[in-house]
Specification:
The structure is a homodimer of 205-residue chains. Chain A has 205 residues and is an all-alpha fold. Helix content of chain A is 66%, strand content 0%. In chain A, helix 1 packs across helix 4, helix 5 (75-83) runs antiparallel to helix 6 (90-102) and helix 7 crosses helix 9 (147-167). The radius of gyration of chain A is 19 Å and the shape is globular.
């Protein structure tokens, strides 16, 4: 891991300082240029470190964006695991992953939604994560027609659920067990997963 | 319509002034005491008018709460009409009513969501409407078990859709035709309507 002096601030002494410098530079750049307009290379330059160090500490650009929020759970790892086995049963895995992660951190998620949606900037990190990370990951895991539209409607269902359960706290949803929610909501989400028309062939022989 | 002098501010001269006084009093009381803790009688007293005048101008308590927001469409009338014919096909009527109302007023709805969710008060009017008006109306229109939970999940789907389409503006959802959205999202919502187990009997004879 070679570290070169970049054009931004000079490299700081220890690992903790360098990690902080990278997150600070990433926050500014994502806020100013959005997810699409930011690159690991430019963020590294701003932080005064080599680009390979950014990947070493934080992974890819999506992971770095999520890291700027310093969340108690890693949504990327959760989603990657939930979609790994393909469309069959994906809704149940996605919803269980979501609820088991955030039911324990309701206040954090509620604050994320409140502050994220309150901002009228489309570069706000929560909006960017919903749009450029979560929707993209789900879309890649779907098959058939209209994957992007179906993925964005899946995210709609999850954001709406979080809003009513954690932010507005509508009863009985706020106090319902995750099992009750899963039972009702999974078929509604699985419909969006299966609606692409590319089902596995039936037993034709 | 007899008007009596209330304990609050003295009755004002013309209809426009009285209507404004009622809305001002309603906004303060809903904010201070919530939907459940407010009454038309107390609001009338605060506005210095007779309670019958409040009903005459604004209808019932739900309608008065909605009136305080001065929206370009009347959600109560839209929902009442969408649920009037019962559970069969209700999801399609609800979604079409929602999209035809708000697609024309995206900015208004986006601002409602932003300001509504940004507030951390559970007495904030948008949260109260989601919880005490919309969820209650949908719940009353459902049949079978778990009506309240299913209604709150229907509202989750609608709020999530509005958030992704109007606030975060995720593509292709933001630009999709309402017809495309209806086609994919209706079966997902109708599942919640039909999940109560109280279906009409099959052709048993």
């Amino acid at each position: 891991m070679v570290e070169r002096r970049g054009r931004g601030r000079p490299p700081t002494g220890d690992v903790a300082d360098r990690r902080t410098a990278i997150l600070d530079a990433a926050r500014s750049m994502f806020a100013a240029k959005g997810f699409g307009g930011s690159s690991l290379r430019a963020i590294a330059r701003e932080a005064g470190v080599d680009a390979s160090l950014v990947s070493h500490y934080y992974g890819d650009k999506s992971q770095l964006l999520v890291a700027t929020l310093q969340l108690p759970v890693d949504p990327i790892a959760k989603i990657a695991s939930a979609v790994a086995d393909g469309p069959d049963g994906m809704a149940e895995r996605v919803l269980r992953a979501f609820l088991s992660s955030w039911d324990q951190h309701r206040d954090v998620f509620s604050t994320l939604i409140r502050t994220g949606l309150a901002s009228d900037s489309s570069q706000e990190p929560v909006s960017q994560i919903a749009r450029d990370v979560v929707t993209t990951m789900l879309s890649s895991a779907l098959v058939g027609e209209g994957r992007e539209l179906r993925a964005s409607l899946m995210v709609s269902q999850v954001i709406g659920l979080a809003t009513m359960r954690y932010v507005v706290q509508v009863e009985p949803l706020a106090s319902a067990s995750s099992e009750e929610v899963v039972q009702l909501y999974v078929p509604a989400m699985q419909h969006l997963i299966d609606a692409g028309g590319a089902r596995s062939p039936g037993p034709s022989i």
